[in-house]
Amino acid sequence: MEKLTSQLIKKLKRIRLVASDLDGTLLSNDGAITEVTRKAVLRLKALGIRFAIMTARAHSSAERIADELDVSMPIISLDGGLIRLPHSSINIFASYIKGSVVRKVLKESENRIASVVLFVDDKMMCRETETMIPSYIDSFELDRVEVEDLNSMADRTIQMIIGADSKEAIRAVARQAGSIFSKVDARVYRSSHHNERWYLEIKNKNHSKATGLSHLEKYLRIENSEVAVIGDFQNDIEAFDRAGIGVAMKNAVWELKERADIVTDATNDQNGAAEFFDALYDLRTDRNAKN
Questions:
Q1: Residue 198 DSSP one-character state
Q2: Is 82 found in the same domain as 59?
């Protein structure tokens, strides 16, 4: 990393919580936690600096990584849609989509012969016959529950993903349910593995990693100026704008690097997150006080 300014050193000395993204940040490209990164996290914890996971993944997937790191802090999952302690059944915060919205989308999806996945608290719910689950979700090794009736889960749904064999079918679901989308964010995207397959992702408008971070700050009774956020993608931008320190990975998108206080010299596949953790550790133990 570049030499730290005196102003930045002052800010870093206030940090009491590090909130880290997973994919493209804490994890290597094969989805693993390296021993270098694990030890760097443990050193921060030994100094009394709290460490939290903040991810677009579902809770059950992030929970496995928290276990590897021996992290017991609440996990911010589903891009801020859920905050829950590892191995707990009690939510600190959950941003549920209105049940009537979920049921409307389910009905329209059935009419269009589209597959549906619901993220209900810490689990992913789907019908046994659903096959159009995005491949990146399957790779997360999250808890998957097959049910006959998704409508029974409508009131505890945080996120929905609808898949179909054509963009027209997905757009039809969006058009038919268009009147309800003012209450939610709806994003259409193409499968990265099947060009003919399209997805519609739905979640509440009022949650993001930044709002999740604000709820975690209240829970821990700390100020946003005492938080450092490290990430690599667009969904980290709002959290960067909120936090006291924003750390972008070398492999981060340019929009995030523009907002960052620090950019690592290494990528996620080169222990870039550990680079920042070690720098923070050295600073807080006065090993690098002259910089």
A1: E
A2: yes
